[in-house]
Write a structure and sequence with these properties.
462 residues; Dna Ligase, domain 1; Cathepsin D, subunit A, domain 1; alpha+beta
Length: 462
């Protein structure tokens, strides 16, 4: 094409992929990315007449898992591609037809899970070369579409919003867990509103207590809240949850249960008092007691764990007695509260995460630490896989959540020679790893728990 014949596009456009059965998908136009990509899951390779093919499913609409398109494509390549967050992934590359502004041409597109991203498709420079000019200050220069028009294209009727008013109290609406909760609630017909915890404030008054959101809007009329409080704002977040309770709003996890689970020493004491096995642990304040503290947990190697740490941060493996003494005394010199805990070597860097809702284990996964790590934490490069917990492990998880008063929790266990041991109980467990590993709609199960507690019944589909 001559320059004057090229298509002018904005930073985002609606594309059509007719060979894949996708009439519309909103794409991020990114000349900085070489290869185009589309959100795909359940990706399975197979051979057709000796030729490699791949089957996969696509959610073409953002924040909508009810519209699913199933596809089969011939594999043209498999490449290692670096994403915008710096991580590398080996992806299948397929070829398909794209339609835009009355023009159509063949493009290569990689298959990857784009759930954490803002767009279901990325339109890269390979697909644009010689055909497109980009005006990054504009959007939808090739035409926009209404929600009704998009729904008609897919033969999809959005669920009727006639359910509960539910607030999601959190800090970052872009996190996978928060987006999934909003999406799952809306799919079940509820009105879900995200509230930034720091933007909420309270009126304490015996006659008319109130919760306000930025700008002065009163939000007392919620039926329920789902608190997902970051560790560094636990005090304020729990105060807010208590205030919602004072105006009659149900909280999926209470303030008392959240603050108790966040206090690692308190939670370990409560779990032990309820007869639940935990790794042998020690707690002391004076540096004079360091030697006895180390002996208390059967010596090195041992774990040193800051009481305020989260997601594997503030947890150190001391492999020798000298290293243990140095780490413990260094933390104490900073006036940091810490636990010293026995090291379970036979676990080989793995643990179990059991997801409990309303006193029932609804999902479980095994987490394996990455090379060089001793803790199996997905945020630090660990991997997750499906696991079937034993009866003893299920019982331990449900008893732990009951002991701490939690309705929803992620319970971390470790398998040792003397049986399962409780590591900790998380009051705001992430959903991404557990949903990916198990394929279960954990967010939907959480809303089912709220519906049961408030005795709300879903209308049957028409």
């Amino acid at each position: 094409m001559e320059t004057q014949d090229r298509i002018i596009v904005g930073s985002e456009e609606w594309l059509s992929l007719p060979q894949l059965g996708i009439p519309l998908v909103k794409a991020r136009v990114d000349s900085g990315a070489k290869t185009s990509a589309i959100h795909a899951f359940n990706i399975k390779s197979y051979k057709r007449n000796g030729v490699p093919w791949v089957s996969y499913e696509v959610h073409p609409l953002q924040n909508n898992r009810q519209v699913t398109v199933r596809c089969d494509s011939e594999v043209v390549a498999r490449r290692t591609i670096k994403s915008s967050n710096g991580s590398s992934e080996k992806r299948y590359i397929v070829s398909t037809l794209v339609q835009l502004a009355g023009h159509s041409w063949e493009i290569s597109i990689s298959l990857t899970n784009r759930d954490p991203m803002g767009y279901r498709m990325l339109f890269g420079r390979e697909a644009m070369m010689g055909r497109i000019l980009v005006d990054p200050s504009s959007s939808f220069l090739c035409g926009n579409h209404t929600k009704e028009g998009i729904s008609q294209q897919y033969g999809y009727t959005p669920p009727k919003v006639d359910g509960l008013n539910i607030g999601l109290l959190a800090s970052n609406p872009a996190l996978y867990s928060n987006r999934r909760l909003i999406e799952a609630g809306e799919e079940r017909g509820h009105r879900i509103k995200f509230y930034d915890i720091k933007q909420c404030y309270m009126k304490l008054d015996a006659e008319s207590p109130e919760i306000h959101y930025r700008g002065g809007r009163v939000i007392n009329d919620l039926d329920a809240i789902i608190p997902r409080i970051k560790p560094n704002i636990t005090f304020y977040g729990c105060a807010l949850v208590r205030h919602f309770k004072s105006v009659g709003v149900y909280a999926l996890n209470s303030a008392e249960a959240i603050s108790g689970a966040r206090d690692k020493l308190y939670s370990m004491q409560m779990l032990s008092q309820n007869g639940l096995d935990v790794p042998i642990s020690g707690f002391a304040n004076s540096p004079i007691d360091t030697d006895d503290l180390i002996d208390m947990v059967n010596g090195a190697p041992l774990i040193v764990k800051l009481l305020q740490g989260s997601q594997g941060q503030g947890v150190v493996l001391a492999e020798t007695r000298k290293a243990a003494e140095s780490v413990i005394n260094a933390f104490k010199s900073l006036r940091a509260n810490l636990l010293v805990q026995e090291f379970i070597g036979e676990a080989n860097g793995s643990d179990l995460r059991l997801f409990v809702v309303n006193g029932k284990v609804v999902a479980a996964m095994k987490r394996q630490a990455s090379a060089g790590e001793f803790r199996a934490n997905i945020h630090r490069g660990g991997t997750a896989s499906l696991v079937k917990p034993t009866t003893a492990e299920r019982r331990m998880a449900t008893r732990a959540t009951k002991a701490l008063g939690l309705k929803v929790a992620g319970v971390d266990l470790i398998r040792s020679e003397k049986g399962p041991l409780l590591l900790e109980v998380n009051a705001s467990p992430g959903l991404e790893g557990i949903e990916d590993a198990t394929g279960k709609d954990i967010a939907g199960i959480m809303f089912a728990a709220i519906e049961k507690r408030l005795e709300w019944k879903r209308r049957p589909a028409s």
